[in-house]
């Protein structure tokens, strides 16, 4: 019994040690940190996307649902992580990883992120964040300024005001969109007369009180899937997210938008929010924001712009005009972990009017007391870390002009790639880049000629095989691990709105070279011919049609 | 013009460099990293909570809403951060910082978090996370196992199943609670006959279809404020979060709960969810979960347990019995960034039934395709980082037995402090610790004697002054920067449910010593006497009453 107690005390002592600051720079932890850095540098320099282990094989290393009873040495566990996790993860910062918006990171963020992790501030309240609160408010101010360009007195008045907020930092674009639409819903159904507002009384009583037959949110058919999720969460219903058709450039059709508004009004359905897309996730196109703002103003709709991806382009004075009208939005979503090059978890929603957030304000006794500057009184999330710090550092270290260069060259590179694709006899550009995103597919030259003269039935058959071929190429290329493009489905007008699988490319990594882009196409062409189903079938059809 | 172009090219080249892996260990970034580590170690060793700069002064350093035009050197900006941010932040891991749940971190997480930041995986989909996806699924499995203790075949079947999920990782307890209640709402109002379900059709049509007059969520009056926020976001309305009175131990009163259910049913209001609290934020008490589960089962309510804080105690076999009944919950919220000692941003919701998440499933063309193992198809958030990795590492390195020791000693320390407070003639324990959280206040000995014999009016007057004194002491102590306790408001039965300000203490930091606890009381006693308003007034009243 005495021995047991002594053993427990010894264990506790060694547990205390892990919470104590390691004193010597050459401590065990210091050595482990060096080993990690070297391993990571090696991994990141290898420039290979993934290993050839299948997911099923990897799952075997992560299959035990028991929390281990006994402790492990940090060094042993680090070895496990490096071998089983790091080596089997995706090299998202490779210049050959051009399929998603998850971006390469500037290396100065590695040492700086140490500050964020070690201080472990909780920005929900001043008591656990102190200087991180003014810092976050300043970052939100900078983003507000980037969008709305108000004068100095405006920011002097509102940036640090306890009762106001220029926006909210959050984990990502989805939470940002939900927050914006939550504000919009609560504003549209606010307290009046004896009705205490939707926040207090709920949607059922709110809609009855206002006498509507239902609510709706309007967005183009290219809107991000998070908007459907928002409509579900907020109790609006996915069906009430009304998708308006787009033109040949994937932008919302204003005539169809007007029709939609009229139809809804005729049915006594209140469209309380209109969402403009500034950089669609699938094609990178930007809605006609000014024309949308006109309609939103006229109809009393909250105008939200989902610029999760495209918003970073405001940092370039050369790209800025493409987003004209964004300064008329009531709220804007921007993800800094996309083209602002900071790590995952840096979403933001910015509000034009600093008092708009009062629609979602809440307080509690032990924190978020009225009059405090606690950020948590107007965010969807509660406890949150100090991620704003990394955006703050990047904005300062890269500077606006630095971002301008990075963003401009990504657009130039996308234009270069679009031209390169258009020049190939066997590739087809599906959507031209407006910013640094484009889509295309592989169509053998003969197939293209055959398609042009085929009967409608033959066209359908060819189209189906081309879709199969696109899926085959994308999967096989991803598995080969040299290059990575993503894949989506579009309905191009010139293909009679047939559901069309396409390759999708985002050229945000500054290190992606022209040689890499050429290599991506060459590899896809090679892979196509390895298809034992779609390719031979396509060729047989083509021969029959061309005779 | 040529010169301009050359200059831009040179700038671009230097921008490229920041995305390139630094080659030498003695590179500039390496040196900066060392400087940061040393500075952080100094700051964290100083064991002082905050500096004496006021928030207003700090705000001056964060007041410019312009994104700087020109870039800065990393070294210069780092200096700014160390001086203006780090030095003005809150030392949340100090053993004297015992006011909040934001915890101290084991130091092995510093090097390991480097892996998370550098790899920058996006766990929304396999394509950007690979091994991080099985890892996260395993962590969710471990937590599920901790709560529900199912057998190996269960986890073999469901842990890595594409169509199922044992839970969702998220940024924190608020998102976890919203997710759980979102699932509950969608299950309660699911598709039937020609109705497509609330997710598709929205709340208004759902409630009409089901023929209810309204919905409700039931929780004790000690429920976390995020539940009100959830009720608002989900369209239920804050008023429809029904607060049931608690007993003298801050636990929901089962008799009152039964009454509440009856009253709601009589009004044709559907209580679709019952929330048990396992560790209230303000007093740390645990609801009678088994009795609640009985009622939830009988009434067909979704039973959610908010164990954001208390859930970690399941890692101790000695504390586990206090949470009996949690294994009957349909869903459970646990925050690993509380007593599992990982950095901010590690919330989780765990579901008993692996197919329950289908209530909130969603898909998109370019990601989250049906049949994929993408985690993003059943989370509220979209893009997310690899935070699960740090919990995985901590569970492995500390081990269950290590956590048991940490958690048990925190409870012992709370009991020690409760006894210490009870022994003081001039302190009053308000709520006893059930886990490692307790509340108390300062009441001079004479005041206590006077209160006992005072008239009701005199009691009110004394009570008001004591409240003022509590606020004064807590603020002044925080500002002095040596020790930190938080403050909340309770309505203790023995004080006739008067609104009572109290000190709130969370003893999660393993390095907090008995000497520190004594010091906290001594300092509070000293500060009390410095009050130029509440203290002299209290004393004057006391003299009048005692004669």
Automatic annotation (TrEMBL), chains A, B:
InterPro entries: Asp_decarboxylase_pyridox, PyrdxlP-dep_de-COase, PyrdxlP-dep_Trfase, PyrdxlP-dep_Trfase_major, PyrdxlP-dep_Trfase_small. Signal peptide: none annotated. Its cofactor is pyridoxal 5'-phosphate. One of its GO terms (biological process) is carboxylic acid metabolic process. Keywords: Decarboxylase, Lyase, Pyridoxal phosphate. The modification N6-(pyridoxal phosphate)lysine is found at residue 338. One of its GO terms (molecular function) is carboxy-lyase activity. One of its GO terms (cellular component) is cytoplasm. The keyword Lyase applies. NCBIfam families: NOD_PanD_pyr (TIGR03799). Belongs to the group II decarboxylase family. This is Glutamate decarboxylase.
